[in-house]
């Protein structure tokens, strides 16, 4: 009976129909599964795109927030030095591993105005060749790799621990037609975003930074000119006051100038022939020392004076390495020697010396130049008075000091020994 039914089903095509239905259902199932998979893939891609857009938006918002925070802090600074410090602290937050420096154009040359992570010696040495400066001015942003840094001699200007710099970013301040300076840094702000974003942010920031630095620099220049004018009037007033002697006036003048510059001591030496000075300064003012250090300091002052007289055409700034070459450095770490002229004659030099290296700005140099020029006009009276004093203190026949000189000198030595709590023997 069953066999008959099977035979009848095959004969009637029922099995074929059933197979076709099953196949159709299977194909439909595959289609719906494939369509669902495609839909899921499309949804997944859209989600990924949305996530990327959200991530980009979050990153842009973070960068914008950091940019605003930096600009708010930077723009709030009215002093150029403080503004520069804010800039460099953001570029090189860890000065033990990174460094950053602000270079400003002065007289057509790039000079370090402020630095972070560089030693004083490096600040004086680091310079860029003409090709590098031209390149950064033209392009706005330049990245120097380690090989380029070595080829252009920049690595050789750095101390050994700083020479491990893998790359250096140079950013132009201002437009290519009128740049005001260059920022050099081993890292960019902020440190946790891709380099391309850092460079884009740096380009925007440097525009605002340049505007504010130009404004702060103008304000600082005006303040310096006003301060310099007041200082000149104050020094001129000293020469108009009444003093017991012209030499006392010169001493008061040189001492006030010393305080304006901010150094420990000053000494005025007269020229005593070609490239040499009088053995004893006619004026000394500033810090008093015990006899041993006092003697060494005077030797250093005389050495600086002789060197300055050899270069009497200009004011000479002596840094620690310059002093070391002259054999000076046990006490004095910084010195300035300025010629004292009257018309075309160099009458002497003033040596300003300090225990530590000090910043001798252009405004200070202009003040010293004016003061020593003004002093030169007063030296004729001083020299005449000094000659009279010398004759009063020396025996005309032997040239030895007389009793009056002995009395005054011994009184000074007793006062010095008393003030220092030292013993004195004769």
Task: Compute the average pLDDT.
Answer: 83
Query: How much β-strand is present in the residues?
Result: 15-25%
Largest sheet: 5 strands, antiparallel
Neighbour order of strands in the largest sheet: 2-1-5-4-3
Distance between the termini: 154 Å
Q: What is the string of SSEs from the N terminus onward?
A: HHHEEHHEHEEHHEEHEHEEHH
Annotation, overall tally of beta strands: 10
- Give helix % range: 55-70%
Sequence stretches where pLDDT stays below 50 over 5 or more residues: none
Structural class computed from helices and strand pairing: alpha+beta
- The number of helical elements comes to 12
What is the approximate shape?
rod-shaped
Radius of gyration: 39 Å
